[in-house]
Amino acid sequence: MNATPTGALLLCRAEPFAARPPAQLLREQLLLAPAGEGWSVLVPEGRPWRDSGESVERVLAGWASAMAIGTSGPVVALWWDGERAGTTLASGFRRQVGYVWLADGTAVGEDEAMRTFASRLGLDPVLDVQSLEPLTRPDPESDARSRLLGLIAVLSRAGLELPPGLAPGESAGQLRATAQAHGAQTVQWAGWRGAVRAEIQAVEDGLDHWLGTSRQQPSARAFAALQLGAGVPLALWGLRRRSAGWVVAGGLLIAYGCGGLARGPGGERHDDSTTADTTAEQHD
């Protein structure tokens, strides 16, 4: 495992059509493919850790949060490098759940994290938790890659079905070649104008889910204000830490908040949304 290249996968509990709009906002060239009923997988190019030397764990944590907010469903990030491998689960605005293994498979984390992981993904509280628990125990025959494969095997019971050959332990280039061979779609940054349109679509698809109410309710605007208020400090924190993933997560919250506040009580956009689109076009 010491010679294993750095790589990552984002497993979204959402169909590809729902995952595509928020994925465009990550400002990373990605490949998107179906991964079983109700699942999709994103394969990143890996520029933040390849060109800028950022931590793959930190970048994936930010991206997972952004995708979970955008798709209204949980997102499981898998990452690995020459020294460690791990998983991060993002689910809405809840605190993330993560677990790490050293290259030799030594578990570094709390057992309770796996139970929380199973609960938030809607896995079987008995059978699936029993299958996850061995991943936290010593096993001299399991390295970090084997641990991630064991995690994927448990997720397969919830419908996850990765394209053949798309598995932890490979480099980003090899993962992308495999995804392309299975017909994965290319997702990339389309400029601020495209980002605004993608944000509007994502808001329309996800807002009702998180609120549990109609957009006609006053709580919709309150929720949008909450998103905006949370997004600004998160983006600033990401800038200070030079973490592209968290900057994106904060930017996505800001975009969602602005999009929600731009809508009238009846769910229609105000006329100033045209101004926003024009402003976005000027910055493309």
Shape: globular
The N- to C-terminal Cα distance equals 42 Å
Question: How large, in whole angstroms, is the Cα Rg?
Answer: 19 Å
Return residue spans where pLDDT drops below 50 for at least 5 consecutive residues: 213-218, 266-284
Sheet of most strands? 8 strands, antiparallel
Give the DSSP E fraction (strand runs of 2 or more residues): 5-15%
Overall pLDDT score: 79
SSE order in H/E notation? EHEEHHEEEEHHHHEHHHH
Domain module count = 2
How much helix, percentage-wise, in residues? 40-55%
Reading side by side through the largest sheet, how are the strands ordered? 7-6-5-4-1-3-2-8
Please give the count of helices.
Answer: 11
Please tell me about this protein's structure.
This protein is an alpha+beta fold and 284 residues long. The protein folds into 2 domains: 7-186, no CATH class; 191-282. The protein is built from 11 helices and 8 strands. The chain has helices at 16-24, 47-51, 56-71, 111-120, 127-132, 144-155, 172-181, 191-211, 219-241, 244-261, 272-282, and strands at residues 7-12, 30-34, 40-44, 75-80, 84-90, 97-102, 107-108, 185-187. The protein has an 8-stranded antiparallel sheet with strand order 7-6-5-4-1-3-2-8, with helices on both faces. Helix 3 (56-71) packs parallel to helix 10 (244-261). It starts with 6 loop residues before the first strand and ends with a helix. Residues 213-218 and 266-284 have low confidence and may be disordered.
